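Appendix B. One record, verbatim.
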Amino acid sequence: MESNNQQKELKVVKNILLIGRTGSGKSTLANVLINKGDNFEEVFKESAGSISETKNFKTEEAEIDGKTYRVIDTVGFGDTTLEVTKIPPVFKEMDKHTSEGVDYVFFTFKGKFTSEDIKTFEYLKEIFFDEEVVNYTALIRTNFKDFRKEDKCEEDREKLKSENKAIAEIVNKVKIIYVNNALPIDDEDEHSIATAKKAKSVSRQKLLEHLGSCQNEKSCKPRIGDLGERIKRMNEKELNELREKNERIDRELKNMNNFIN
């Protein structure tokens, strides 16, 4: 009995934090990662539309290549206005699972990297973590049909960087992983289902290769719980300073050249 308890205490869990707006393929990616069974069981509720299926957040642990990973699917960061002086309860709850640190951040986006995506990325490193989180973050370009072709992926990277200065700065800092985790075009057609399943399998392998090659010695500590406690103790002056920081991020993004709509 004591031996079992010791084994539990020695168990190391790597946290993978998924961030992305509703419709970016975030929950589908979570299912691809944990791969519950040959049919990619829908443990994380998926949605093909723009309505969020993640009302709170969900975590799931999985053994991958001999290591234990905890996949944390968050509520869509870009779906509601994030006022840092009113931390949503979901973030306080999430802190229980990330207080020891986050080992990987997968930032999902589909199609264009929008102004909302840029803002979310800035909030990630300015408010919820700090600049160090960039070293733990990978952009995951979902539903990219040419994800197997490196020349097409490189072409898309260059296209993203040419969109505007804000996107170029982000793309130059982090790795982009191209996957195709799209749902079957016709969920009653066997060929469509098989094609989607094959794409998910190859996509999963690409993600696992990233996990294997990106081994940070220490995890990145979020400031979610700390922020909540600081807010409770803040006076009006401090609250205004925090609001001003939030507003500064908005202004900086709006003032960037060729900012996309």
